[in-house]
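Data availability (excerpt). The following record was deposited with the supplementary files.
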Amino acid sequence: MSHPNNTSADNNQQQAGYAGQRWLVEERDACGVGFIATLESVPSHEIVTKALSALTCLEHRGGCSADQDSGDGSGLMTAIPWELLHQWAGEQGIQMPSSEQVGVGMVFLPQDNSVIEKIRPVVADLLQKEGLSLLGWRQVPVYEQVLGVQARENQPQIEQLIVASEHLRGDELERHLYLARKRIEKAVIGNGSLVIGNQEESAQLPITHDQLPISDFYICSFSSRTIVYKGMVRAAVLGEFYADLKNPAYKSPFAVYHRRFSTNTMPKWPLAQPMRLLGHNGEINTLLGNINWMVAREADLAHPIWEGRLNDLKPIVNVDNSDSATLDNVLELLVRSGRSPMEALTIMVPEAYKNQPELDAHPEIVDFYEYYSGIQEPWDGPALLVFGDGKKVGATLDRNGLRPARYCVTRDRYIIVASEAGVVDIPEAEIVEKGRLGPGCAIAVDLETKEVLKNWEIKQRVAARFPYGEWLKQRQKLETQSLLENPQLDAQTLLRHQTAFGYTAEDVEMVIEEMAASGKEPTYCMGDDIPLAVLSSRPHLLYDYFKQRFAQVTNPAIDPLREKLVMSLSMYLGEKGNLLEAKPEYARVLQLDSPVLSDTDLEQIRNLESRTATISTLFEIAAGPDGLAEAVRNLCAQATELVQNGTKILVLSDRSPLAPLDKGGTRGGGAVSGDTTYIPPLLAVGAVHHHLIRQNVRMKVSLVVDTAQCWSTHHFGCLIGYGASAVCPYLALESVRHWWSNSKTQSLMERGKIAKITVSQAQKNFRKAVEDGLLKILSKMGISLLSSYQAAQIFEAIGIGSDLLNLGFKGTASRVGGLSVRELANEVLSFHQKAFPELTLKKLENFGFVAYRPGGEYHMNSPEMSKALHKAVSAAKSERLQIEEQNPGSNLKSNQSEISNQKSDIPGYDHYEVYQKYLQGRPVTALRDLLEFKSDRSPIPLEEVESAEAIMKRFCTGGMSLGALSPEAHETLAIAMNRIGGKSNSGEGGEDPLRFKILDDVDENGKSPTFPHLKGLRNGDTASSAIKQVASGRFGVTPEYLMSAQQLEIKIAQGAKPGEGGQLPGTKVSPYIAMLRRSKPGVTLISPPPHHDIYSIEDLAQLIFDLHQINPKAGVSVKLVAEVGIGTIAAGVAKANADIIQISGHDGGTGASPLSSIKHAGSPWELGLTEVHRVLMENELRDRVILRVDGGIKTGHDVLMGAVMGAEEFGFGSIAMIAEGCIMARICHTNNCPVGVATQQEQLRKRFTGIPEHVVNFFYFIAEEVRCVLARLGYRSINEVVGRADLLTRRDVQLTKTGALNLDCLLSLPDTRENRDWLNHETVHSNGPVLDDELLADLNLQVAIAGNTQYHRTVRIVNTDRTVGARLAGEIASKYGNKGFAGHITLNFIGSAGQSFGAFNLPGMTLILEGEANDYVGKGMHGGEIIIKPPAEATYHSWENAIAGNTCLYGATGGTLFAAGIAGERFAVRNSQAAAVIEGAGDHCCEYMTGGVIVVLGKVGRNVGAGMTGGLAYFLDEDDSFSSKVNREIVKIQRVITPVGEQQLKDLIEAFSERTGSQKAKDILANWSAYLPKFWQVVPPSEANSPEANPEIAAQKVLSTVQ
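Predicted structure:
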């Protein structure tokens, strides 16, 4: 029988499909969090006071609603304040028993007192049945005047429920309070029946569910030890709102505090944290899978401690709850079942133990992790978790460690842990230790034994509870089997099966054969421009209707290239044990290192596990299209029967008996033939998975899919994402064997055209490509482990109807509905009918789904379209010249205004109309093609519509980098956009400062000595891109670059490859490109998938703050890619102070991307834009941001479609390139562009024929078309129609596949016909008062800047002073550029610096900090010095303590950093030219470094030098542990073997010693000969022949590193 919460999603599934879970489409959050505790025996009010102070210092990590006052949430968890409650009891005349017998609940009640009075007797009755007596309800004193408007409107009545037990104490009382709370919640919220033992008692309320929505009743905590005070308030308001917190009688030995930043803003008091046991600041990316698996586990949960009462606790989780609440629900179950919070979290959120050298000494901890890896899939992404149960309080970081966690320990036995250093003011002399948690690390305080427990001690105690190592001896592992070497099918049979299962020539030749030959996924370019699968007239595989979701902003993507050590593809087959008890038999599972199985692997599984059964997914076609649904039902019934009879591994197979290895008791056998066809494997596995959950047997079996229809990485991702543990792609492997055996392939190998490999290696290559592709799919969602991805359903369906969704994909968002089961059956049969009964094909068809071909699938960017556009933009020039000859002195602008009332008179417009009509006549390709305009007004004359010039100011080009594009193409776009008042986008890679000047040297032929390679120039032109992009690689981001911008764009994701990084092949890194990017010529450059300073929404807010700080005049835009849930993300971005939000569609172009990403990630911009506009309007945030849209926009009609859906500005990418000469050869990634648009080859660049005027003409045509459509609609400006979806209606078009698409999500936007105030935007948002403004207000500093003189000042600093120095740097850069300042400014800071200290520092600036710093020190630093050292009164050793946070020197392009202490993760990531000396660092040091010199005088974490392609690094290794921590994929390590290298190292250490007074440095220098042999030098290939690294190279010059 299914559980009640299994149906929660069903209520939202209408004919249109399913909009998505509440946590996906309404709420995301990230936050600042921490705890403070004392080991003193007496609780104190001081703890509470300090916690409130710390909370206030984390205010910038929180968010506020649209009213700017209602906080997204703040809260404290403390011990119950018994003294305060005893005072209350005395005042009420209540005799309070001993506190050991008392429980206290913090309850949010409805505002309606009549409803409350109906709740109270129900609560009292249930308490009595639980053996608890009600002592009273205490009204919590609050001061509601301090609340914001929205928070006050939603304010609950807050009371405390005081209960007592006569016999229960301690943990037993906690369990009964837990049971009581769950029963009360079900009675009040669920209005259902309650179960005690075997007796059912009705406890239904005399009120209906409709009268009590969930948000109206919520129990924050119910415990005999802890209590939670929280609300939708800002941090500073929490203590003012709750009078108790300021009461001296409120005492506690600990406090957990939390400040929330929610991406949504409708106040929801229960969502504030801490929850009942924890608070955290990440986002659980695997949530739907975790929920589904927890629901599946409920049937198997058992523990003697509950004495048959577990049903009272169910459902444990609810699909509509937030990720934090769900994690807390499961943690609470484990803790109340007898585990400590540390053990429970170590099970749920394990570290990356497989690549951790420090665990070599702790095999028992590894055994613990291995044991539970077969039972509990990890909850991936929670970041920093802080927990407390009244006995212990602590914190742990997840495996990726993407959020900071700093702690300090004081002499008077305080322990403070927080997201930032400096949140509690502690005299430095009182501090005995300053530390940081690394990835997977924990710290805890045992309040009973008064111990501070560190990471390994915690885990050793947890692991020692049971002999896990002994138990694991029962575990079997699938060893690699030899692969089949000969084809098993003849060529004709292979072709027949490939045809029946939907293979095309492109699938075999571009995907399977490429993966077999190279071991890599195929790369392609220029995006996806064919119709969506549901709109196409051609048959598509079911997989094509599913789009991969991806992380953006609220949690980052992971880097599968350079951080693979935290990832794993291991899977486990067999029954999963009861989570609540540890037993030896639960170790008996079969471990797979890879989910990709060969035929022989599958045979071996059947041999190792006798309880393996196979069900055929074939069915008779005689039943016609209706037979598919019945076949799925039969399949599910067979699966249930087999599992109930003891099957542990269930193979779902569409294999024909003609193929080998069809063993294992196949049921329902048969073959794909004229009489039988197949259930699509994705539907088969999804349906069986969900059916077994409903039957309460899912945990007893693993599903393996044995299928012909799986070859792309996306196919594997879908199958595993919907429940498969492993996949055997037997026909794909057979295709590989045939390819290898083919004489053509053998000839290519013999001639060296492709690598010479064996047939086994070809199959291994295919498997490797799939495995790497799976890692990429996982990583783009921020998921580390395939076991967490399994059944997580991280997809959006586009074109799947509700009956099909419910049959196999329950819980998947499908907003527009689509195919029914019957319609899917027709599509399956259309494949089948090509192969049976007669195969008429001689070879596989090529439908042109990837590459355009005549007669194939429609491509928007076709040769015909390109030719039409080229003719239009060039014809306009010649016709304009004729006009100018006839009208001397005329120009385009004046001429345009003269003839604007006659569109046919605009030069070249008749040619543009050919282009326009070609696109208008296209088949239905995008969702907007299903719509047309309907006006509510009469047409108006064209001359009444705003001018083309005004419209063009709304146009932008896409973020195409210089590097992907040639200089000619890049500069031509910039010049053209500047001419029309639009905005070009630099893309990633920087710009030559030469481009920032206005041209005044252009001759009569349009040539300029400044840009001799360009044609068609004019005086007054500038090639500076108005929008300067800040992407994850930070290439070319310097202060001068940032100050040259009108807008600064943060590219979170790219439409063609969302969730992935960029790559510039080495062939495109010319000396000029390398100069701009501060890298090495010829060396491939990779932009990481995540921004390493954006791991959460508050991190994005910090980067926005950074950019506003350096250039307060430039608006900051954030580029997102459409996916379900983007509305809530955009709400967070708006609250994070962005000025513009850009929504990109999935069909955007790209210079290079994996083909599967181009095809299968991201959603149409129509869905993304309307969702964002709707959510921002509903949350009263729309006025905060301008919305821009891009992705396949090609006409004025497209522009207005975007406008009525909510866009105010419009981006043009590929089409702008076509306008300047691109012919869509689609070989951008090869550097061989035949027309010089996308190449760095000099000879090819000379072929570039584009001129700015061609691009100008194109945009004039677009603007004129917009004017014409507006005139027909009766509107005078774009502004009047923005957000007016009421001007749209459905077109009368018939789709081939379905008539069931529902476009309400596009058409049902908020009514904005009357109130248009939300279109009034602030020009650029302000950071508010900042320390830099105080500094710049000093006249002496202004004099020093203006006169290039000296300046010195000492300033106090606190952690809320962020990005200090950046505005000063911007001021200098605006006057002098990057290098021109000849003065010197020295600022001495004392205290704890906030994030981004010294960001964008310039030469001539020295920032000295006596104290400590947080994350992002020296971000984008270009010169000068940053010096950080402990205060003189510090008594601890600097080299043993943390002094700086994560991601320091990110994207630095110069300067020097000296820090006397330990830094966090990713030190010097993407450093280009800076030098630094520190005394220790975390994981991923020197990641993606392309230049500079780094010296580390202490221990480091794992993955040193990953992706490091330039620069040198030196590491002191005093315990011989360093070599195991280096990523050797690119770099080598050696001792310091050259005099030049030795001198470089010594010079830096001497400078470090002088600047910081480091005792460690002094000791090294005093014993140089002893220490030098202990240093390792990390050397990338580009530095192998440098004098610092190679003794054979004559030392011509010592690299200068100290300024």
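Summary of structural features: The chain has a mean pLDDT of 90.
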